[in-house]
Write a structure and sequence with these properties.
Blueprint lengths: L17 H11 L10 E6 L4 E2 L4 H6 L13 E10 L21 H12 L2 E9 L9 E5 L1 E2 L4 E2 L2 E2 L1 E7 L5 H13 L38 E2 L3 H12 L3 H14 L4 E2 L24 E6 L5 E6 L3 H14 L9 H15 L6 H10 L1 E4 L2 E4 L2 H15 L2 H8 L5
Helix pairs in contact: 5-6, 5-7, 6-10, 8-10
Length: 399
């Protein structure tokens, strides 16, 4: 029997280098009576993953799919299992099935580390018909040490004792947890290497508009005068909207303008823009943004089309009204920018950003220069509210 007390979730390490030490201490702390059999029933926690020397399989971490099944083919797979029974060394660990994953990144990492404390099993030379699936109960043999079993790895997979179909709720919970935690440690993984533009859309998440035309990314460099004319038409006499549009463009797209998209309008967010429909966009592209993420961006056939939709989106997001004081207006626009356009910050997150230069959400730190943004907006608002520009704005555009 194990001689240690059960472990609380709160004792799990928070995804830093000491987790390796914690894992070693855990494994070394278990002492068993010699008469205990080294064959155990175990629950398959993760889908078996190919263990191959082929470069493509290693890079893709390729997982078995229905289409790949071939009863005559033999391959090597690795999966993680929780040993079951009264004498299980994993009785000291929290059960992953009882773990409820939230959107918090630290929670996802704790679940990931919990899985790593279980036993990795090698299923060698099996046909796909003999290979277990997530939620199956299997038999494995642990290697004997001087005082304890090696719980880190089992090279003796002895077969399936019960299929997952016999416990659908258990299997469903494992699939839910593993799916929710799949992006743990995403920041530490090399992502989206190669060309930034992906016209195939294979690197991007799902689009809000699956049937919208897909194209490759093209870059345009409209002049400042062309931007001003297009903004004048799009703002339809609203000088506050006109100034805000050009101020935000100076921050988001000061030089080139991919796909005549004035301000990085994305079409893969959790929700769509209020009052905007698919036919407002001409097409969409899949392009890697400055943060290293492959995102879907709106595309327009002309600068005028892009400006009209940009103006429509801004109006529906409640731009702050002008107070007549450029300093106040630039501060208000900067607050609005980080709460409604760039990061969608809460009031508390915005205060943290202004005080410390970063905002923390779900364990992820977002660094932004609020004061630098305010100064950029102040400069732009000062220019576009000058008497000369105001007169030209109210005059004939020549179109």
């Amino acid at each position: 029997m194990p001689s240690k007390k059960p472990l609380s979730y709160l004792d799990l390490d928070r995804a830093n280098p000491t987790s390796t030490l914690f894992e070693k201490l855990f494994r070394d702390s278990i002492d068993y009576k010699k008469e205990i059999d080294n064959v155990f029933d175990a629950l398959v926690l993760t889908e078996p993953t190919l263990a191959s020397r082929e470069a493509d399989a290693v890079v893709a971490n390729k997982i078995r799919t229905t289409e790949e099944k071939d009863a005559t083919r033999t391959t090597n797979y690795i999966f993680i299992a929780r040993i079951l029974g009264r004498d299980s060394p994993h009785n000291l660990l929290p059960d992953p099935i009882d773990f409820n994953i939230t959107d918090d990144e630290e929670c996802k990492k704790r679940y990931h580390n919990l899985l790593q404390l279980h036993t990795k099993v090698s299923a060698n030379g099996l046909s796909d018909s003999e290979l277990p699936s997530q939620g199956d109960t299997v038999k494995i043999r642990l290697s004997n040490g001087v005082y304890s079993f090696d719980t880190s790895f089992s090279r003796d997979f002895l077969g399936i004792t019960a299929r997952a179909a016999t416990s659908p709720q258990r299997t469903s919970k494992l699939q839910e947890n593993n799916g929710n935690a799949k992006d743990a440690f995403k920041k530490n993984k090399p992502i989206n290497v190669g060309a930034k533009d992906d016209p195939t859309f294979q690197k991007c998440r799902n689009s809000n508009y699956p049937t919208l035309n897909k194209r490759e990314t093209k870059f345009f460099k409209p002049s400042l005068q062309e931007k001003q004319v297009a903004a004048t038409i799009a703002s339809a006499g609203d000088s506050n909207l006109y100034s805000a549009m050009l101020a935000i463009i100076s921050k988001e797209q000061p030089n080139s303008m991919p796909n005549y998209n004035p301000s990085g309008i994305q079409l893969d967010n959790r929700g769509t823009f209020r009052g905007i429909k698919q036919n407002d966009f001409d097409y969409q592209t899949c392009f890697r943004d400055n943060g290293g993420d492959q995102r879907i961006f709106a595309g327009f056939n002309s600068l005028e089309n892009g400006m009209k939709v940009f103006a429509k989106i801004l109006k529906n997001k409640g731009l702050p009204a002008s107070t007549g004081d450029i300093s106040v207006d630039s501060s208000n626009l900067s607050d609005w920018y980080f709460q409604n356009w760039n990061l969608a910050l809460t009031d508390a997150e915005l205060k943290q950003l202004k005080d410390k230069g970063f905002a923390t959400r779900n364990g992820t730190q977002y660094k932004r220069d609020w004061e630098g943004t305010r100064k950029t907006f102040e400069k732009q608002l000062s220019y576009y509210n000058s008497s000369a520009v105001a007169e030209s704005f109210s005059g004939d555009t020549g179109l």
